[in-house]
Design brief:
By secondary structure, the protein is mainly beta. The protein is built from 10 helices and 68 strands. The protein has a 14-stranded parallel sheet, covered by helices on one side. A hairpin with a 2-residue loop joins strand 15 and strand 16.
């Protein structure tokens, strides 16, 4: 046999194989049958049947879904044996140009009858569900106060949500829920009502926040209580009697309407391991919808942060590599959108729209067992002798080299409030780029700890953030790494004696560059509580400025802080921080900074007062002041003209294009931030009045900077600024940065609230009229918690 003939035979085999692979696709249709072979003319009916068929195929096909809604009766689980290859990934996609919905719900065929006052009722089979959709539109579970789209927090809240008078009006509250914002507005809490005794409720829950400080006095609501079914679009399902009650919009008879409910929590799960991962599976062009709420399962604490989590979502990756989700719409899910959990590598999420989600959009969270010397609450710590000194992770059980790119994320955290558009914890080298994120109750992007850095945050457009919570940022991060200690003096000694502790967890630099951030209710960029090893440059900050609290090795340069400023808070000695070549819109707002890192200089201040104030602190020796001369503020072009004084300081123009999503499909849908009007700070020369008492300097707590530095939830209380007479002051026991929030005579049972300096002065006047009382009891806020201090006359 000639070599030429062998070569022709080889070509024929390759062509035949390639042709077979191209025609190897499986087709699924809502009108198909799982007894069919899965061809175009004889499609399968379910996705599960198609996946099962692929396991016997030597070359993975495309599974193509025709238009329609596919209701899953169970979660689709991908195992290692479902894996494709780099050349032939297993692809699950919508037919070109068709809308394909993969639903975790089911349709109800109901016969409605009139009940009373415009409400209807229908018999069900008694299944449990927590979301209901009528003709595709989400309805409202019966609640108090009623839903109001114009109310920012919870779309309606009431101080009397669980008052005794209201509880008395409920026949049986079991199965209802109480939702509340954290006392200090650091996220939220959720409780299930298990019953009532008289006018008091019995409840379980409250584990959804890692800072257990109680619920907010006012920001709360209840739902799933029959007596609160009093507004149009509300519904209530009595599982015991198998009866669904509904108050339709406009008193329309719901017979003939399409009713959908939520059954499943997760739609797709990738379940593998580091040793045997799920690989090369792509999900394209699907709409994923109708999953259950999971807020009562949000109970796993993350490292030393305010978060607890639930490892669930529309799609869950756990033990996967080289898998991709692209061009999908995550719509009206009750919990998370995508959760990338434990060991994962090279997971790609691109071109997706994520909206109306109960919790986070995308989360990357590793396993706590991969962390050396972990602890799990703000006040927990590892004794110095027990700290593992080995840098980096202990195992590979964490996400790395993953990306979220060109995604449109909005209107998330509809029920859970400790959420983010993108959440990163116990992960490494996560890329978050070209995303548009807005209308979120807390951060747009959050990094929960320093483990293990190396992230790139770039070209994102993040705005309308921290809408329902407080003390946070459009971008937020925490450090609280291995060396963390709740007593600052102890931590100061640790890092001074052993600087190598600083980068044991944050061992790779995280870069934040070329983003546009806007937060009216906090900071644009908030590096909180020990966030270390960051480079921050070429960002536009439209409202809240940049905050650096504690932490080390932060380089902040060449940013535009429009109408905003730099907020350095309680820095460490020898922090090695630097802040250079930035354009400022307002004077610095420092909180207890005694040593200014490596360099704070060559910045453009808005006015002479701002510059002089900085230079009094022995910084900004080579800085200047003046108008930056932006090219076009109205249209968001914050490049500067050739005559700007910032150029002489070394500031370099950077592009004002490319923020947010880049695909045409998503750009047409995405909103953009409103550019604020320029605020004139040229006449600013005022300072808050400071009073002296027993050697201390005191002032009203004022502004979000002081609230964050002290951990206070609002601007109530009197801040201890420092000492007038340190010897005399030390005898009293107060400390700088304490906040006095209450005071009483030692033998009186209740505090007098101290909201302002005037309250304190009035109490002292009263106290001075009763010289026979020798003791006072102060309620102060120190180290993020209330404490009590006894002071003698």
């Amino acid at each position: 046999m000639s070599k030429h003939f062998l070569f022709l035979n080889l070509i024929w085999v390759l062509v035949s194989f390639t042709g077979a692979a191209q025609n190897n696709n499986l087709y699924v249709s809502t009108s198909g049958s799982d007894d069919n072979p899965g061809t175009v003319n004889e499609p399968l009916a379910t996705l599960q049947a198609a996946i099962k068929k692929t396991r016997d195929m030597p070359v993975k096909p495309e599974i193509i879904l025709d238009k329609g809604t596919y209701y899953l009766n169970e979660t689709v689980i991908f195992k290692p044996e479902d894996s494709g290859t780099a050349q032939n990934p297993l692809t699950i996609r919508a037919k070109e140009g068709e809308r394909v919905i993969v639903s975790g719900g089911k349709r109800l065929d109901l016969i409605w009858e009139e009940y009373q006052n415009g409400r209807f009722k229908a018999s069900t089979s008694g299944e449990s569900f927590d979301q209901m959709f009528v003709n595709g539109e989400k309805q409202i579970r019966a609640r108090y106060p009623n839903y109001d789209k114009n109310v920012r927090i919870f779309n309606g809240y009431a101080e009397d949500a669980v008052s005794s008078d209201r509880v008395k009006s409920w026949d049986d509250a079991a199965g209802g829920y109480l939702h509340a914002i954290h006392k200090h507005r650091w996220g939220g809490f959720h409780y299930i009502i298990t019953g009532k005794e008289g006018d008091s409720l019995m409840m379980e829950g409250g584990w959804q926040n890692n800072r257990q400080m109680g619920i907010h006095d006012e920001y709360r609501f209840v739902e799933n209580i029959f007596e609160e079914l009093d507004a149009q679009m509300e519904w209530y399902h009595d599982e015991a009697s198998k009866t669904l009650y509904y108050y339709p919009l406009g008193n329309i008879n719901p017979n003939g309407a399409e009713i959908e409910i939520t059954i499943l929590e997760n739609l797709f799960e990738f379940r593998g391991s580091e040793e045997n991962p799920v690989q090369y599976i792509d999900i394209e062009g699907l709409e994923l919808a109708h999953t259950r709420h999971t807020f009562m399962k949000t109970n796993e604490p993350l490292l030393r942060s305010d978060w607890t989590i639930h490892r669930g979502g529309g799609i869950v990756f756990d033990g996967a590599k080289n898998c991709r989700v692209s061009d999908c719409f995550f719509n009206s899910l009750g919990g998370n959108g995508i959760f990338v959990s434990n060991y994962n590598r090279d997971i790609s999420i691109t071109g997706c729209e994520m909206a109306f989600l109960g919790a986070c959009a995308v989360s990357f969270v590793g396993n706590k067992d991969a962390v050396r010397s972990p602890s799990f609450e703000y006040h927990e710590y590892i004794p110095s002798a027990d700290i593992d000194r080995t840098p980096g992770p202990k195992t590979n059980e964490y996400p790395a080299r993953c990306k979220v790119e060109d995604c449109l994320i909005y209107n998330i955290g509809t029920i859970e409030k400790q959420v983010a558009g993108v959440q990163i914890s116990m992960a490494s080298e996560i890329s978050v780029s070209h995303n548009t994120i807005y209308n979120v109750p807390r951060a747009g992007i959050n990094i929960g700890d320093g483990t293990w850095g190396g992230h790139i945050i770039e070209y994102n457009d993040v705005f309308n953030t921290v809408l329902e919570t407080g003390d946070h940022g459009a971008f937020n991060s925490w450090g609280r790494d291995r060396y963390w200690h709740p007593e600052r003096s102890v931590m100061d000694s640790l890092v001074a004696d052993e600087p190598s502790l600083i980068k044991l967890d944050a061992w790779k630099t995280t870069i934040i560059r070329n983003n546009r951030f806007h937060c009216d209710h906090g900071w644009d960029i908030d590096l909180d509580d020990g966030s270390s090893n960051y480079e921050i440059y070429n960002n536009v900050c439209l409202s809240g400025g940049i905050k650096l609290r504690e932490g080390f090795y932060r380089k902040v340069f060449n940013n535009v802080l429009f109408n905003s400023t730099f907020h350095p808070h309680v820095w460490f000695m020898d922090s090695h921080d630097s802040f250079t070549r930035n354009i400022l819109g307002a004077p610095y707002q420092p909180i207890m900074v005694k040593q200014w890192g490596d360099t704070v200089d060559f910045n453009l201040h808005p006015n002479k007062f701002s510059l002089e104030q900085a230079q009094e602190l022995e910084i900004d020796e080579n800085s200047a002041f003046g108008a930056p001369q932006f090219i076009d503020v109205k249209n968001g072009d914050f490049r500067i003209t050739e005559n700007s004084p910032a150029l002489a300081l070394g500031f370099e123009n950077f592009s004002m294009e490319g923020f947010g999503v880049v695909s045409d499909r998503l750009k047409k849908k995405a909103l953009s931030p409103t550019i604020p009007e320029l605020v004139d700070y040229s006449n600013l020369d005022d300072k808050d009045a400071i009073i002296e008492w027993k050697g201390f300097l005191l002032k009203n707590l004022k502004g979000i900077a002081e609230m964050s530095a002290t951990g206070m939830p609002d601007e109530k209380g009197v801040l201890v600024v420092g000492f007038k007479n340190k010897t005399k002051a030390t005898e009293v026991g107060l400390q700088p940065n304490d906040v006095i929030v209450g005071i009483n005579l030692w033998d009186r049972p209740e505090d007098e609230k101290i909201n302002r300096v005037n309250d304190l002065e009035q109490f002292f006047y009263y106290y001075n009229q009763i010289p026979w009382v020798n003791e006072l009891a102060f309620t102060i806020f120190r180290n993020q918690k209330e404490q009590y201090l006894k002071i003698t006359r």
